[in-house]
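Q: Give me the 3D complex with coenzyme A.
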Amino acid sequence: MEAGQQNIVVDLVLNVFNEFVAPQYSTEGVEEFNKFVTVEAVESRFKAGNIFILAKDEEKVVGIIEMRGNSHIALLFVEKAYQFQGIARELVHRAIIICLERNPQLIKITVNSSPNAYDAYYSIGFRGEKIIKTVNGIQFIPMEWKLKNIIIAQATDKDAHNILDLQKLAYQSEAKRYNDYSIPPLMQTLDEILDDFKNQIVLKAIIDGDIAGSVRAYSLNETCFIGRLIVHPDHQNKGIGTELINHIEKDLNSLQVTKVLKPYIFITNWAIKDLSPKN
Ligand SMILES: CC(C)(COP(=O)(O)OP(=O)(O)OC[C@H]1O[C@@H](n2cnc3c(N)ncnc32)[C@H](O)[C@@H]1OP(=O)(O)O)[C@@H](O)C(=O)NCCC(=O)NCCS
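A: Here is the predicted complex, encoded as structure tokens.
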């Protein structure tokens, strides 16, 4: 989020809130929420270091997540016309990655889910008994996601450098087996891998904040091609490759959705400064 975008965030959140959440709240609850989502309040939490990630379709902001204390979801809202397209899941994944970068020891992410969002959070990976609590008129269900230590998320151009390094490391055993160190995965350049990022779905597996695995896929004439499955030698035989394949197969099944999702840009106040490629 950039300075001046607080208005857009507030408008989006309040619009979605009024339609989906407010009907279940008392007047007191609605007032309490309105106090939490003013331009001034958002600006002050932004300055205090809360993570804000916006999902944009071209220039239009269509989704937003705010993380407090690098571990708690304070806001997660997706505009009606853009719901059920995986935007909330992607926002949560991106937020977790930043939280893990800030705190590699992080073991869980928490949220006080509004009752209407329980099933969505459950599908994303959060758990919690479906018992509704009420504080100051705000109804919520406490939920948490115990981090399995591994997060699978869509890779971005910023990851290209690290994934290329990992690829060259992971394919050493293949090269040794065939006594051929000129196999394509070892010869690929940064520009070439960036082309793959443009034309393919690229996933990454994160362990303790570092990229430990990746896989790529594309479809041509209704055939899907999965390739470049790589796992860091220190993390092989832990099921990471299987997780990556399971995830990419799911993405390929919903390729219609993935195609729509591609143009969305996810921006974070923090990532711009700190998620630049290492080295
Ligand atoms: C909750 C919310 C953020 C989900 O956003 P979204 O972008 O539609 O969610 P996604 O598309 O990433 O969906 C993630 C998963 O949740 C499921 N899901 C999403 N909304 C759901 C709903 N209303 N009921 C049941 N499941 C739902 C999706 O099917 C998907 O599961 P799958 O991968 O197994 O198919 C959005 O509905 C919203 O803004 N709601 C109103 C505001 C709100 O209540 N926010 C939470 C405040 S704590």
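A quick observation: The chain has two domains: 6-146, 150-261.
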